[in-house]
Amino acid sequence: MRTGIATVCLSGTLKEKMQACAIAGFDGIEIFEQDLVTSPLSPEEVRKMAADLGLGLDLYQPFRDFDGVTPDLLKANLRRAEAKFKLMSRLGMDTILVCSNVATATIDDDELRASQLGELAELAGDHGVKVAYEALAWGKYVNDYEHAYRLVEIVDHPNLGTCLDSFHILSRDWDTAPIEKINADKIFFVQVADAPKLSMDVLSWSRHYRVFPGEGQFELAKFMGHVVRAGYTGPVSLEVFNDVFRQSDVERTAVDAMRSLIWLEEQSAKWLESNATAAASEQKAASRRRYPMELATLPKVNEPAGFNFAEVKADDTAQLEKLLGQLGFEFEGRHRTKDVQLWTMGQARVIINEQAAQHAEPAIAALGFDVDSPVIASARAQQLKAPVVARKVQADEEVFQGISAPDSTEIFLCQGSPDGTAAWTHEFGEGLEHPGSDVSAVIDHVNLAQPWQHFDEAVLFYTSALALEPQPFAEVPSPSGLVRSQVMETSDGSVRLVLNLAPAQQAQTARKTYQEHIAFAVDDLVATARSAHTRGLEFLEIPANYYEDLDARFELEPEFLATLKELNLLYDRDANGEFLHFYTATVGSVFFEMVERRGNYDGYGAPNAPVRHAVQYDSLHRS
Amino acid sequence: MRTGIATVCLSGTLKEKMQACAIAGFDGIEIFEQDLVTSPLSPEEVRKMAADLGLGLDLYQPFRDFDGVTPDLLKANLRRAEAKFKLMSRLGMDTILVCSNVATATIDDDELRASQLGELAELAGDHGVKVAYEALAWGKYVNDYEHAYRLVEIVDHPNLGTCLDSFHILSRDWDTAPIEKINADKIFFVQVADAPKLSMDVLSWSRHYRVFPGEGQFELAKFMGHVVRAGYTGPVSLEVFNDVFRQSDVERTAVDAMRSLIWLEEQSAKWLESNATAAASEQKAASRRRYPMELATLPKVNEPAGFNFAEVKADDTAQLEKLLGQLGFEFEGRHRTKDVQLWTMGQARVIINEQAAQHAEPAIAALGFDVDSPVIASARAQQLKAPVVARKVQADEEVFQGISAPDSTEIFLCQGSPDGTAAWTHEFGEGLEHPGSDVSAVIDHVNLAQPWQHFDEAVLFYTSALALEPQPFAEVPSPSGLVRSQVMETSDGSVRLVLNLAPAQQAQTARKTYQEHIAFAVDDLVATARSAHTRGLEFLEIPANYYEDLDARFELEPEFLATLKELNLLYDRDANGEFLHFYTATVGSVFFEMVERRGNYDGYGAPNAPVRHAVQYDSLHRS
Q1: Given CB atoms, is A406 within the 8 Å cutoff of chain B?
Q2: Domain locations in chain A?
Q3: Cα B429 vs. chain centroid, distance in angstroms?
Q4: What confidence score (pLDDT) does residue B199 get?
Q5: What pTM, to 2 d.p., does this model score?
Q6: Which of residues 3-42 of B touch A (CB under 8 A)?
Q7: Which fold has domain B2-286?
């Protein structure tokens, strides 16, 4: 698949954008006109720079408001087009995007439109230019890709074809199957963008909320499957703009973009595999490469089987040790060569890393996931452009395959075991006795705060590299704004990751109003809480008003309610089961949660989240 | 008018919210249930705190999903309601908001709903509570205020009335005239919120985009006019939540909120005045106070006649002096008692203030506006809670009435004169000769960057205190994101203020990518540019590609195009006229623009803004 990206997707100057595209490994780019008009680089300099960077200049765009106009306007439009054709020749470019008219069309007549597009194609032919005509979702008369293609068919000129843009097609809910009927020679270009499903006017949706494939909810693999089946072999190019990308680091966005195309390529191949038509099956029998477009494959991974460990880091780790001890974790000793400690409770393993920078507050540093094959999983992640994290190891020590998540959390791909144990634990506490624990506990979920610039990127990262499934997102009120909460989990819930997008902080206040946490699941939360209480654990203190409201909502047994209140436990119930949980006080930016899932309760106690946020806000504010 | 605000409008803890409401001067508040549930304050403590702060506790809210349910659910709902009634008695509150059912209603039958609401009213009566039933815009079966009122009429119980919420009514485009037919005794509460007109699902619109009255596009004065004519005399309370307020400083938001109600009160009175019905006219003749609700009035001002001056400030003012001199401004000398200089060009007056903090870069510090009466204008602004700015004056010097705009720009209300001169200029350059200038120039517009937290507040500030009219906003692409641009102007265009909301910057980069500027209008821009060029002015350098594109779009005379290109002039044209302009290089965060308006061109060269942003970005990035 030939990969491309429009310069409008990226922030910065044209030069910065082109360099970032080359670094990320794109085959070609679309030149967004405004980027050229505002650039001090001459067309010839742009051409040379692209050649030096190994970037194809695949599409000049956009040319607006051409068709369906009065003769006067047509004349001016042809003059304007010819100026652009001449410019393209200086750039060494041969394809221009012409969008269906939004602003100046006054005549709704396909014959007239065809005749005007024919004149344009003829002029383009004189300059060696191919015109890719695209139906904008909000085009005045032409807003449907099949309509645009009908016009191309009527004109029947070698220099006129169509451009298919997934956003303009899927935002309008047009059926994508008819793409297969389009003559592949007439598809001059394909643009892809994803988006969250929003119910709003399509122009604002397009302008503010497009995201890279895999970061939204469009059925892009299916769209691409139809495009591939049509026989298209040209560039598949990203045209994505939203309020975040344009403000983000250009090189990083380019890598995120490239990752989305690599992932889309794999997903498209999978879609084709599982949606093979009879005809396609025959073709498959005849040849391994079923379609003209070659779709690269990635190393295959299953979803992780569980958390292998979680790692917290601090300069002074005393508070962390105290909290874990009070929760009932056992100290399993220090590592034989590194300044790290291991604490366990059943199969829940927490590493305390003492190698933090001076004065660094406690924070979540790393997560280990159980995978079938760490090497294959790492190869996949690296092909998806995940940065590699190196860990020093001594002889005989387990080599962890590590990658860096968008928020800089280190992700380690570990060899899972059928019984949930981890082979590397023997590297800790040499000479210490390790009595078998009788407590059954696991890491239930981990909640990571995401910087706003990298939230969508993180969703794609965990989807593509770790095979986690994004769930519908929720918004939780906190005293300082709505917290967007995105659950990523495996189908059986054995790995649950919650990505929280904290509200932007006021620059003038230093208050940190959001933290991260690790939650452990136990079989008997009340007993766990009682023991922790005895050991002196500082619980997050839940207001009395909460228990009154809880009673009004759930009509609980008075004795049970009294226990909840006494131990600062939170409670939730739904049709599937019950959920009990409590939180510790926060140290640095970390706190811990203990949960008990009863029945098939599958959530996270979302109705209680505002209480947690408010109490944490209040205690930070008082301190 | 009794003013109120829901605690959900504000950030922070319940205690912080209540204190801020008292400081801003609200008569009462609505307690948002979650704020109480998450608070460590007991109901009795909240009651005492409200009494101490002089705040009425006017509404407990919301009670959700009551009506149209199965008998089982009804029983649980009544139990839940009774718990809340008891809680309200501890709070000393007598009115509760009950929203039409969204989630649990399964039976669409008005008779059943009425019977269930009747049971609720009966129970409420036992506890001395009044139920205000409100139709949510997205209620499952009841989403129209007239429908909600019909149910209230059917039940006909003294403890059941309705709540009118402007958002739920205007977002659905319901006709507001029928409000007048509602029995005033049955209107238990009125909530107001404004919003920009967006085409999106009403729940997301409500949750993220509500703004205070005067900051959006709803016809709130008309809504309130009908409410007043209905005979309602209770609280008018703000229920506004969006992504900005909840993250902003609580006291400041409360003041912004209060300003919006004061302004709404005046606008409602105006609406009633100009929409007097025959019946109302008779009533007016009979009595000065026409309606039971008393609407306070504000000192009246007309829109300003022009800019009196603009002031820039710096520690080292040499660069500013150089720029103004090169542009053709005359140095009119220093002030006789202060460290400020006056520079003029025709009626365009720029004060350079040298009293800046050490190392302070050049920045726009103040704007003077010509008003009919500075004292009346200042009184109005102060009643609208604008902070006062004091300036030291010596005997015989003009006393400026100053207020502080939301972005901290100082706004001075100056005595205008018919010929556009300013009396205070004689305080400058004593002993210097002041040859009459033959150049005709005025301040055309000023462009101020707004912090994102104060953008909506700024719109209301300039609307209410300075009588400027907000125009539809535009979004301008820049290399680091979309810049939201909001023009505020007088009806004749003699004062034009452009408020720009710069994209949030990446925390990790220190690059400043957005600046403010002052634009001056002259009669002959080409001549002005030539003279400035001769004086060595550093123009913002416009890329050659821009002129090629300009020619493609406008087919300009080759000689004219060559002049534009030679002098780095920008050009725009629309049906009304032509616009020529150029920019200087930036010093600190300020640059200057020179413009020439030909014909009736009324814009700001918006198509050229991306060029300016890109070139400024590029030059900052290179330096």
Answers
A1: no
A2: 2-286, 306-622
A3: 39
A4: 80
A5: 0.90
A6: 11-13, 33-34, 36-40, 42
A7: TIM Barrel (3.20.20)
